[in-house]
Design goal:
Helix 4 packs antiparallel against helix 5. The protein is mainly α. The relative contact order is 0.12. The C terminus is likely disordered. The chain starts with a helix and ends with a helix. It has ten helices and four strands, in the order ααβαββααβααααα. A hairpin with a 2-residue loop joins strand 2 and strand 3. The longest helix has about 30 residues.
Length: about 240
């Protein structure tokens, strides 16, 4: 009983500290907790699409397609892409929390297990949720960085980092090319014909190359989820 009380108190303290940190994170921008919630809600409604150029599950399905109901929207069995992504994220989060709890009970290092859980949940959000931009993978990489000493995650981190850089190049070159065509003195990094080999035609939204990169992100994220939190892997390093 005492251990359970200590555990619950630890979770409560961590939750309060996390909530407090989040509440003050917008003060530098003139946003209080209520304004911050409103800001996030409005931002989420700006791009109601499957993937806003992010290489993830929905990038493999198709970029910039409506993720709700309506004409040309993406869905399965009456469920919209947005709902499917949210359900997948909730299910993965629950599974990760349960697996982390079991790993700690079996003797895994608490700091490593919790760090891995945070990184996995962040990565899962990027991969399965809709309306993701390419830059949102950065948070997952930050959280995964302390785990590069774990052999099973090292290769995954390298692969995700490379794909993140590719995703940034694709978007950076695309938008800068538009600005350059409009007369602005920008470097577009549209290195012909390499860019076309890697991503396909610039003005074509969905190409097989982008779908391959998206599927690779999904595959690596799945491997991290399946192997990254096993207690025996943490305790053996």
């Amino acid at each position: 009983p005492e251990q359970r009380v200590d555990g619950l108190l630890g979770v409560a303290v961590a939750g309060v500290l996390s909530l407090g940190l989040w509440a003050v994170s917008g003060l530098a921008f003139g946003l209080g907790p209520v304004s911050l919630v409103r800001f996030y809600g409005e931002s989420a409604r700006v791009y109601p699409v499957t993937s806003a150029n992010a290489f993830n599950l929905w990038g493999a399905v198709g970029f910039w397609r409506p993720d709700g109901k309506g004409e040309n929207s993406v869905g399965v069995l009456g469920l919209s892409a947005a709902r499917i992504g949210l359900l997948l994220f909730v299910a993965i989060t629950i599974a990760v929390l349960w697996q982390t709890h079991r790993a700690i009970e079996r003797g895994a290092g608490e700091a490593i297990a919790l760090t891995a859980a945070s990184a996995t949940v962040a990565l899962a959000g990027y991969v399965v949720l809709t309306r993701m931009h390419e830059r949102y993978m950065f948070m997952s990489l930050v959280l995964l960085a302390p785990l590069v000493f774990v052999r099973q995650l090292r290769l995954a981190y390298a692969g995700l980092s490379a794909l993140f850089c590719l995703n940034l190049w694709f978007v950076y070159a695309y938008f800068n090319a538009q600005w350059k065509d409009a007369g602005y003195p920008t470097g577009d990094f549209y290195w012909r014909p390499v860019y076309t080999w890697v991503f396909g035609e610039m003005l074509q939204t969905d190409t097989w190359q982008k779908q391959i990169w998206s599927l690779l992100v999904v595959a690596i994220a799945t491997a991290v989820l399946a192997r990254g939190l096993r207690s025996e892997e943490h305790t053996s390093e």
